[in-house]
Structure formats: C-alpha cells, structure tokens
Amino acid sequence: MTPKQPGTTSDPGPRSPRGPSAGTGLADHVAAVERLRSDYRALPEGAPVRLAKPTSNLFRFRERSSAPALDVSAFSGVIAIDPVERLADVGGMTTYEELVAATLPHGLMPTVVPQLRTITVGGAVTGLGIESSSFHNGLPHEAVQEMEILTGSGEVVTATRDNEHSDLFHGFPNSYGTLGYALRLRVELDPVSPTCTCATCGSTTPRRRWTRSPGSAPTAPTRGGPWTSWTGWCSAPTSCT
Ligand SMILES: Cc1cc2nc3c(=O)[nH]c(=O)nc-3n(C[C@H](O)[C@H](O)[C@H](O)COP(=O)(O)OP(=O)(O)OC[C@H]3O[C@@H](n4cnc5c(N)ncnc54)[C@H](O)[C@@H]3O)c2cc1C
After folding, report:
1. Going by CATH, does the domain composed of 26-47+62-191 fall within 3.30.465.10?
2. Burial 103-119 (b: 16+ CB within 10 A, else e)
C-alpha cells in the first residue's frame, strides 16, 4: 500500500509496514493529514502555531492565549503494527500508554517507555525522552526509522536518516516543536519476556541492580540481550536480593 498523499511531490508518503496491521489505519491518517494542512493554511497571518492537546508534560509558565490551536486529535492512535519486522507506525500524539497497549498483545514493546503514561511518542522524540531501558537502548529518537513532519511552510515531508530530509530527521530530537510537528513516526519495537527475575551484578559500591530474563547468563547488558531493565541502585549489599 503506497498512497501518494500526504507530502510534497517528491515525497511518496507513508508505506504501511508489512505484516498484519492493527490500528487506526493508514487511510484515516492520510485524510487527517490533509485536514491538518488545510487547518494550518487557515491560521491567521502571524498567529502563533500551537497544538491543541489534552495533555502536556512540559511544565512552563505561559501567557494564556486565545489564538486558535491546531486540532491534532486525529494523530493519537496506532496506525499499524508489523510484528514480523517489529515496527509500529504511530500517530505523533499517541501516548505511550496507548502504544504499549497495542504492542503488548504482539509480545512487543517500545525500546524506551517513559514513566509518565501521557507522554506522547512525538513529545518524547522532540523532547529527548529517557527512561530506565535507555541504559542499553538509547533514547526514544534512536528507535525511530522515519517521521512524517508538518513543517513551518505547511508541507508534510517524510524524513529518514538518509533521505533528502535527513537534516530535519537528525535535528528533530530536542527541537521541542520548533522544526515542525511529527504526525506519524515509524518506531522499532523490542520483544517482551512474559516473566523476569531480579539479579545483582557483583561490583563494589554502589551496586547496580539489573533485571534479566529467567535462566539467562549474567553477561554484560546489551540491547537484544537478556537484560531488560535497570531497576535502580543498591545502597548496601544487604539490600540486594
Ligand atoms: C514532571 C516531569 C516528569 C517527566 N518524566 C519523564 C520521564 O519519566 N521520561 C521522559 O522521557 N520524559 C519525562 N519528562 C519530559 C517529557 O518527556 C518531555 O517534556 C516531553 O516533551 C513531553 O511530551 P508530551 O507528549 O507530553 O508533549 P507536550 O508536553 O505536549 O509538549 C512538549 C513539547 O514538545 C512539542 N511537541 C509535542 N508533540 C509534538 C510532536 N508530535 N511533534 C513535534 N513537537 C511536539 C510541544 O510543542 C512542546 O514544545 C518529564 C517531564 C516532567 C515535567
């Protein structure tokens, strides 16, 4: 499935991941992109561009604004999951709570799941999210394969690590919406173990506590290895189990 919209003429638009898909659907997403582009064009000249989002995890002092905000509610859902390639196509305003609920039935999870359940995938990527599994999986943006972004010019482009929009792709993390809004992201997923055990690495103080799959050898933590989470620090040997 390779729709021609959204995007510029040079942009082929999103490809659905292969394999069974579960989610809001690409056709709905493509229609929502067109509506958003139209809403964006209709903003009054010089008006600040704002997102109408029901949640936010960026605490800052702001003047109340009566300026219209872009309705991005259509971008809060999982579009498709490819359990074979371990990829999810997800709307930019999808919360991690929603994404995890969609991936777990496939035995998969995002490589990093922020602690606050209302953090969105787009917000975590543009806001440089982090959580415990980052110690071996990196940051959320490092598991992104491509992003569909509404830019300031009103275009919607698909940026990847190495296409003509790679500058945008690489500059997007930590840009906090200043370079555009991510409407769709393709993110890599990791397998989930049904159970885990808690173990400690032998080390001098302070001692690290790791979680690893049952029966796995106590090797150094690496992505894709048995280690699934860094659960904290042991302050004293007696507190380690
Ligand atoms: C108390 C607190 C605890 C936190 N804990 C964690 C944590 O455990 N793990 C973690 O990773 N982070 C944490 N954060 C940081 C949080 O991940 C970032 O602030 C993140 O940007 C919030 O994402 P959001 O989806 O809630 O977006 P918002 O708060 O709505 O927006 C944050 C910024 O991102 C921009 N933005 C939002 N969506 C998009 C999009 N789709 N495309 C482009 N720009 C967008 C907005 O314009 C805004 O500038 C915490 C923050 C706070 C205040």
Report:
1. yes
2. beebebbbbbbbeeeeb
